[in-house]
Amino acid sequence: MLEPTHNNELPPIPGKRYFTIGEVSELCALKPHVLRYWEQEFPQLKPVKRRGNRRYYQRQDVETIRTIRSLLYDQGYTIGGARQRMSSDDETPTPVELQQVLRDCITELSEAKALLSIGDGD
């Protein structure tokens, strides 16, 4: 099983419509009892239940689980903090998203600097 801080090393999500709890467990590197517990704690996580109370997760559910996993294991949120973060209406960017924005800005500024220095050489 993966270490909790290796969320970026999780396997890609296959192009299926529904996933069993065992498949989601492997895709998210979590035990099934953790997934069942998170269903109680996070209202966004509602897998379809079919005959015999079997859970079937959709791709969106798997992505939500990975987000929760990242909040708890990578970013250090508590269950309550992660729940609040997931349900907050304001879309405050995550640290990873902010880093990407900064990288994009640096790239654009470097390109602009290169263009300006080409213009100075005339």
Please tell me the overall pLDDT. 87
Intertermini distance: 59 Å
Structural class: mainly alpha
Helix fraction bin: 55-70%
User: Looking at CATH, which topology of the largest domain would you report?
Assistant: Multidrug-efflux Transporter Regulator, Chain: A, Domain 2
Largest sheet descriptor: 2 strands, antiparallel
Number of DSSP helices? Answer: 5
Detail the topology: elements first, then pairings.
Layout lengths: L20 H8 L3 H10 L6 E3 L3 E3 L2 H16 L4 H9 L7 H26 L2
Antiparallel strand pairs: 1-2
Explain what you see:
The chain has 122 residues and is mostly helical. It folds into 2 domains: 7-89, Orthogonal Bundle (Multidrug-efflux Transporter Regulator, Chain: A, Domain 2); 92-122. The protein has 5 helices and 2 strands; from the N terminus they run H-H-E-E-H-H-H. It has a two-stranded antiparallel ribbon with strand order 1-2. A hairpin with a 3-residue loop joins strand 1 and strand 2 (54-56). The longest helix is centred in the C-terminal third of the chain and has 26 residues, at 95-120. It is elongated, with a radius of gyration of 20 Å. Mean pLDDT is 87; it is low at 1-5.
What's the gist of this structure?
This protein has 122 residues and is mainly alpha-helical. The chain contains five helices and two strands; from the N terminus they run ααββααα. Strands 1-2 form a two-stranded antiparallel sheet.
